[in-house]
Structures are given as structure tokens and as C-alpha cells.
Amino acid sequence: MTPFEVKDCALLTRMSGLPPAFNLRELRERIAVCGENVLFHHFCETTLRGSFDNPDYRNDFAVWSKLYLGDRVLAERLGILDPYAFPSLGELRAATLEVIDERLGELTMIPWARAGDEFFFMEATTVVFDTGIRISHPRELAASIGAMTGGSLYFHFLEARRRPPFGKDDFTAWLFENNVGQQNDPYVEALARIDFDFHTLPHLRKELVKVLSELEETK
Amino acid sequence: MSTPLGAYEGIVRPAVLRQLRQLGEKLAGTRVVHVNSTREGGGVAEILEWMVPIMRELGLDASWEVIDGNAGFFEVTKAIHNGLQGANVAIPLKGWKTYEDVNAKNFDRLRPILEEADIVFIHDPQPAHLLRLCTGRKGKWIWRAHIDISRPSRPVWKALRPMVEKYDASIFSMAQYAQPLPHPQFLVPPSIDPLSEKNRDLPPAEIEAVRSEYGLDPSRPLLVQISRFDRFKDPVGVIAAYHMVRKVAPVQLVLAGGGAADDPEGKAVLEDVIEAAGNDPDIHVLLLPPDAHTTINALQRLATIILQKSTREGFGLTVTEGMWKGKPVIGGDVGGIRLQVVNHHTGFLVNTPEGAAHRIRYLLYHQDGIDRMGATAREFVRENFLLTRHLREYLTLMLVILRDIKANVVNV
Q1: What is the mean pLDDT of chain B?
Q2: pTM, 2 dp
Q3: Residue B303 maps to which CATH number?
């Protein structure tokens, strides 16, 4: 079995250079032209950032719509967008713009935020490095994940879905690669059952450890 | 005395320390110089006191240099500092000349170390002019703004901006604090040291001693706001909230802060607070000396609920400290408090004394919520606002700036 190489990553947030948005139309204009890295940050990297605004919604656009535009309808529509379900960030951008355009069409007034509540567009650089740690068997997964940093967990379980093989976390991809006689199927199925969207990284770690440990206990 | 990284074992997960050591390995031998304007006192010195020794422990060749200045220089830099934060100040040309001359004098002394450094962190505006003087520099220079410069006095920013924009990058604590600049602007929020006097675990006897000293009743709920006596911290609004709660619950209130003696505005606020408190024996207004860290620590631990009802706030590290003590926080819906207080999870954000009173009553009614939110708050700080995260972001920043400052992903 090929050992699983545990990587780690650290995120460094920076201003994107785009002007902040004070209202929904400005938000739409900025999303239409921002770099994909900006889009990725506000949809995906929120879990790894040093703060979170509201665990109700996992992307910053939905949170801002709810808290500062006061538009719960828009927040709900944006909040359900799953960034990992889109084959590309371009398609995620198109879907986001579609939701905002639909809402702009429904409203008679453009919702706006108070000064100080504007939306700041940010992006991040991710530094990735090899921890030197290796996992040689699926039964080691629970303990290894339990000892991982949030950075490792994010890199292997969330960010991985945007790398080939697209849509798969690194653990699942590794289990598939080494699935002699379908022996890893129970692990793959257990990982697939986790709805990671609503977890903070510490919760996600706990959930993964729980699911994988239960699997070992039932063996 | 500096605290070794190993001392944080048990406070953060082993993986967190391993990650820092691995990032440090990638930067082993890197010559890093921090420059600020004071060795003692103030938030910047507090950060550098722990950061520089730990960077050295991780293998970096880190040092901390302090610029010397005369009274005239510090008068000008105080005006620059206030101007950057929005105060309407006038700095005459003579003042800017003093600023540049003192920087030049310091540069003569620091030239070898600054020229040879791989990375130089210049903290705040006082030493910002050094970059212009260091024409033979080899490394990258980063300007670290610890203050909110989002709405500066235009003349002050107009004079300072040409110095700052020549840096390779800048760091701000929050997006809301930044100014548009032609280089990358990184965001690194501040942090607390869980082993400092203000935050370390206290033995029950020490906590009880503080309770006795101030005559606090252990059988009744205690509300605590720790902050200097400043109108933006709204201590009078806190007393108004207390009065609203007091009609239905036998709460006690502590308003503790320091630094009013040499500050006319602070003195006036303190007088207003004392007047608002009246003769109520359950309102304790404590004017504490600047080194009363253990007392503050104990008061936060004695609190049932921590308040920080600011109407304007920087990052709000007193919120972080309160959360680290496992307490829910009712905070003003402003500044960095918003990054820390999440409604129903770590406390509540409020906008008025009425809102604060409502949430105090809510929490006193939902006692289980106090414990649950307090536990969440502590874990939230553990994950996001301890010095280990702060250090990780500095190390990451150095790796990025030495490799490819504009890359989205840097493999090291």
C-alpha cells in the first residue's frame, strides 16, 4: 500500500486590491471581475481563516447579505451554494451572479450597508509543506487525523476537492488507489457520509475521528 | 523573561507546535530584524517580547532593535500616531524635520544590521522613514501598522504615505484598518499570551483574595467590564444596562480600568461613571494601576458574564481575554469584537444599553448557555487568537515574501 503523505498548510490573508462594496450592486460588480483566488477565499477558505462571522452560512457573501444588507432571502440563496459542487470557479462565479441578479430583479431598492459594514474583498496565499508524517494503513487514519493540524485537515479533506481527482478528498482518493479487493469501501463510504459544510475544522476533526473509530470498533 | 515554545504544550495541540517548528525549519538562519520605538510598555513591545525569543528558538536569526529619540521626536510621533487614527493634528515642517533627523541618527547606528537583514519588520510610523535611508538594503521590508489608519488626517497620511508605499508589503490587524497601497497588504489579527500574568491560570486562593479585596458576593452573578475610562467603551451605558437588569436579578457590576490620572478626557469620563454609579454598593468602579494584571485576570475569572459594550473599538483584546477565561461576552457590534463574538455561540453583539440588558437577562435565565458559550469561547480563542496563530502567520508571511509574494500557493 502506498503510504499517505501528510501535508500541512498555513493561510495568509491579504487585501485583494478591489474597492469594498457598500451595496448589493457593487457586490455584484466586484464579484464579476474579481480574481478566482478572491472567490475561492470567500467561499472555501473561510474555514481556515482566523475568524468566522456566522456559522449559519459558510460563505462570506451569504453572511454579509444576512448581517449587513439585512436580506435574508439573498443570504439563504447564496448560503446554499456548494463551492465544491461546481467543476470550476468560473461556474461558481456564474451561479453566484445569477443568484444576485435574480434578487436585484425582485427588489425595488438596492440593499446597502452602513459605513463600516462594507464588504472587503480578500484573498490568501497558502503555504504548503510536507510534515514528514506517513499513514501506511486505513486503520491508522482515525488516530492520524486526530493528531492533525487544522491546516492538514483543510488541505486533505476540503481543499483537495479542487485538485485532481476533482471532487474527492485526499483520504478517499488514497483509499481508492489502494482498494485491493474493495477492502477500503467501508472507509470510503464512512467519509462520504460526512456533511462537512457546517463543521468548523475542530468539529470536522472530531467527526472524522468518530466515524473512522466507530468503523474500527465494528470490525 | 521569555517563555519557551514548549511551555505552550498542553495549552495548544501538539500538532500546532509541530507545525510552528516545521515552518521555523524552513526559515532557519533567516536574518530577521524587528524595529520599534520602545522596549517596554505598549502592545507592540508586548508582542515582540515573546515573538523574538520564540523566533530565535525556532532557528531564525531574529533580533529586536529600538530607535532612540528625544522628547521632540516623540511629540511628533505621537501627533503622527493620533493623526493616522483620525485626529485633526497639525505637524509643522519643523516637526517632520525632527522626525527625519532622529530616524537618520538611528540609521547610522543600525545600518549594518538593517542592510544585511533578510527581512525587516518596521512597527508603526515612528521608524518608518528608515527604509528611505537604507539604500543598500538586501532584504525585504515590511511595514506593520498596529493601529487603525482607515480614516487618517489627510495631511499626515499625505506625508507618511510616500514612505510607506516603498515597502515590499504591509500588515494590518483587520481589513477595516487598511489604506489602499501599491504593495500586498497582509492581514494578521493580534493575539493573547495564555501564559502571561493577565491570562495564566490562577490558583483558587488568588481569585478568592481578589473577591474579598473588593467585597464581591460569591452568591450573586457578577458582570465585569475591563477597559480604560473612555467614552467609546460606554461605561455609563453599561451602568444603564445594569440598572435595567437589577430590577429582575440581583447582579453586581465591576467596571475596572486604568490610566485616567494624566488624561483629562479619561478623568472626566471617570467622574461621569462615578456619578452614574451613585451610592449603589453593588457597582464597583475600580481605577487600577497599569500593572494590575493579576487583579484583572482574577476579575475576569470571577465574572459570570464579561461585557465590552464599546461603541468604537480596535480589535478588542479584552474580549479575547474574557473569552479565554471561559466566559460568554456581551460586546458592542463594532470593530474586532465582531470577529470574536458570534451570537448564541460565544456571546452576543449589542448596540444599546437596552440590548446589553436584554442579553444579560437572557444569559442569566439560560444558565446552561453561560457554560456552553463560555466553553465555545475558550476553544474559539484557543484555535484563533493565541500567540501560536500569530506566530504561524508571521512565519508564513516570511516564507511567502522570500519566495513569491504574489503566488496563490507556495510549496516549501
Answers
A1: 94
A2: 0.91
A3: 3.40.50.2000
Domain interval for residue B104: 5-191+386-403
Identify whether residues B240 and B220 lie together within a single domain: yes
Could you report the predicted ipTM of this complex, rounded to two decimals?
0.90
* Shared-domain flag, residues B159 and B257: no
Chain B's closest residue to A48, CA to CA, is B384
Residues B232 and B186 placed together within one structural domain of the fold = no
Which member of B345, B384, B397 has the closest CB to residue A55? B345
Cβ–Cβ below 8 Å for B186 and A127: no
Same domain as B399, residue B330: no
Are the Cβ atoms of A50 and B389 closer than 8 angstroms?
yes
Contact A129 B16 (CB under 8 A): no
Residue B291 lies inside a defined structural domain of this protein: yes
Q: Please report whether residue B212 resides in a domain.
A: yes
**Within this chain, do residues B66 and B184 fall inside the same structural domain, yes or no?**
yes
Chain A neighbors of B13, CB-CB under 8 A = 147, 149
**pLDDT per residue as tens digits for the range B219-252:** 999 999 999 888 889 999 999 999 999 999 999 9
Is residue B396 a part of any domain in this protein? yes
Peptide bond into A20 cis (omega under 30): no
- Residues of B whose CB is below 8 A from A8: 19, 22
- Using one digit for the tens of pLDDT, what is the confidence trace for B186-208? 999 999 999 999 999 999 999 99
- The total domain count for chain B is 2
The percentage of residues in chain B with a pLDDT greater than 90, rounded to a whole number, is: 82
B22, A51: Cβ pair inside 8 Å? no
